[in-house]
Predict the structure.
Amino acid sequence: MSILEKIIAHKKQEVAERKTLFPTELLERSVFFHTPCVSLLKYLKEKNKSGIIAEFKRRSPSKGAINAYADVEQVTIGYMQAGASALSVLTDGEFFGGKFDDLRTARKFNFCPILQKDFVVEEYQIIEAKSIGADAILLIAACLSKQEVAHLSKFARSLGLQVLLEIHEASELDFYTENVQIVGVNNRNLSDFTVNVEQSFRLLPQLPPAAAKVSESGINSPVTAAQLLAAGFDGLLIGENFMKNSRPELACLEFIEQL
């Protein structure tokens, strides 16, 4: 069983347990549930912004602990002050050390688009995302069928959430639907976690024209970032490169200044 298969198996069990503890009716009472979302698409398309989606990420299955004790308030405020266009917050606990309270805290202190980074496998999680203050969710083609992507993206849109569809292979472009606003190319192969930024350059010409385009993972230098933006990407999702520093927000500031 691959790492991704283990994550999805655990996620389905985890969600089933949460559904018994926190019914949909309870989630819908959240103050965030009825708050209009901030458009990630709009922020990525604004030419006066950096295009950086700065990620708060405590650990990963492949690297282990990255920055286990980082303060989400300090880091996310610092990211936005550094000039990031948006935030991404990992909320998976078992494999990435995240929690819903990380996103709630980021929402409390920042007015900007926030992408919830998790492994969505059913509608209930989308309701959860809205209830904790997310503006956009991630749908990973490698975890879902084409029909599931179509259904979940339509449901997300009905709640006002935007969708970032993550692909790694050209064949996954067939998963794109009109309810997906952003397509991300993950340079990391989720089967073996190897990283190759060239994957973004290869797939860019095939990405749907109507969607904003984001390159994800392995973007470690401002030079590479500039090349990706010049090639036609609207955004770059960067987490580990910032989070491995003791002060991620300062690493982000230096990166954007060089960019």
